[in-house]
Each structure stands twice: as structure tokens, then as C-alpha cells.
Amino acid sequence: MFSNDSLEVLHKKLWKHLENQSKNWHSFVYAKEKGFYQGFDEIKIDGWRPSEKRLERYNIEKYITKTKSVLDIGCNCGFFTMVVSKYVKDIDGVEINPYMIAIADDTKEFLKIQNASFLTSSFEKYQTDKKYDVIFSLANDETIDGNTKFTFKEYMEKINQLLTHDGIIIFETVSPDTYQPKLFQPKLEFIKKYFHILKDEMVISEYPVNVPERRFLVLSKQ
Fold first, then answer.
1. Does residue 111 register a pLDDT over 90?
2. Where along the chain do its domains lie?
3. Mean pLDDT computed over 102-129
4. What is the pTM of this model?
5. pLDDT the model gives residue 13
6. DSSP helix/strand/coil, 101
7. What pLDDT, on the 0 to 100 scale, is given for residue 21?
8. CA trace torsion 76, 69, 130, 58 (10° rounding)
9. Which one, of 119, 120, 105, 138, lies nearest residue 25 by Cα?
10. Res 23: pLDDT
11. What's the pLDDT score for residue 153?
């Protein structure tokens, strides 16, 4: 448990990053109405998408264990990444927005998390020699801010290259693919061609409000 005073100091730091974002970041800002896209109960931050509840809804305990190295693509402010960090060997979060990474780094330091790392980068430019056992692609294969340049094929091919031979992809659809299923169909056909679908179901999603559910898949290499 953290004292109210220490949480207040942290919150001021995090809100300052949001203030700087509003002044200096010229791309679309997710969940601007509420401040934070991701919530984090542990530090009493309310956001549109509650991190602890999201992980519980996904029901993926069997795929994230203390032996796994994990990548979270488009990790936003890293709150979900840090929730996952409790269950895995190590986890890297990649996010193009530097103000979100600043929030992640300050929170990581406050929580004294040792096995999570955050990097400011687009996924297209992300480079590493590391291979991952699990890769999260949560509503990130295309983005309404215009910062995603990959086609879906290029995006999935890069994920495939970063995976270990028996690696797992945790995949959640972007909003349009959820409420216009025909948009997702070509992507699904590509997925079926190159990956095994281990799980395919709908999960609750609070943001945006007109998308109360998203399609959620767990994939493995063929």
C-alpha cells in the first residue's frame, strides 16, 4: 500500500506529462476526455480501460509465466505492461508517444519494477536482437492517429520475426474491425493462413463507448 502523500506526488508528475502532451504532441490523443487511456488500480489512476480488469478478462494465465519474455506493441502509458510484468520474466513496451513513455518510466520507478523496459519508437522502427515468447498486439495493428505505416501483412510479418519458434500472439481488434466485422475478414483470412487460432472470443471494452466489445484472439505459429 502507498501513502496518500506519495500517490499525490506521483499523480502530479503523471498529470504534468499529460499537460505537456496537450501542448506539444500533435497527433490524436486517446481518451483525452478522461486523461488516461489505461487505468491502474494499484496507483489509484482511473482510465477508460482498467488494466487489472483487462488482464482478468483475457484469461491468459497459461500463456504468461515467469519463464516468458514479452513485448507489448503500442503500450500507451505502460500501465497494462506493468500489470503483466508481475507474471513474466521480462517485458518490453514500445510506444511512439514520448509523453506516454515518460508516464510509464515514472510509474515504473515509483513501483520499483525491475523487469519492465519502455522505449519511445514506432513499431515499424523498433529494432532488437531479442526474440519474444509472447507478443501483445492490443488494438494496435492500425491506428486512427495516422502513425501506423505498416500494412496488416507487414505488421504481422514483423511480429512473426520477433517471436520464438513456439511463440504466442495475444491479439485484440481495433475498433472499426469490431463494429464492422467485414473489415476484419481479410485480416482474419491472413491470420488463418499463417497462424493457429488457439482462442477466439469477444471481450468487454470500455473505450470508445460505441465499441462495448472487441474480438480477442490468441495465436501461435503454424
1. yes
2. 4-221
3. 98
4. 0.96
5. 98
6. helix
7. 95
8. -50
9. 120
10. 95
11. 97
The per-residue pLDDT for range 118-150, each reduced to its tens digit, is 999 999 999 999 999 999 999 999 987 878 889
Residue 65 C-alpha cell reads as 509465466
> Cβ distance 72 to 93 under 8 Å?
yes
C-alpha cell at 165: 519458434
Whole-number Å distance between alpha carbons of 45 and 56:
18
Rounded alpha-carbon distances, angstroms, from residue 15 to 21, 45, 117, 175 = 10, 10, 21, 26
Residue 191's Cα: distance from chain center in Å?
19
Angle (nearest 5°) at CA 70 between 69 and 74: 155
Higher pLDDT, residue 84 or 34: 84
Phi, psi at 33, each rounded to 5°: -60, -35
CA distances from 149 to 62, 83, 129, 154 (A): 32, 28, 22, 9
Estimate the share of the chain in helix, then strand, then coil, as percent rounded to the nearest 5.
35, 25, 35
CATH code for residues 4-221: 3.40.50.150
pLDDT at 77: 98
Helices (H), the chain: 4-24, 51-58, 79-85, 98-111, 152-162, 175-179, 181-194
CB 63 within 8 A of CB 134: yes
What pLDDT digit, counting tens, does each position of 167-185 carry? Answer: 999 999 999 998 888 999 9
Cis bond before residue 208 (omega within 30° of 0): yes
Residue 52 three-state SS: helix
Place of cell 500463456: 63
Nearest CA among 211, 213, 208 for reference residue 34: 208
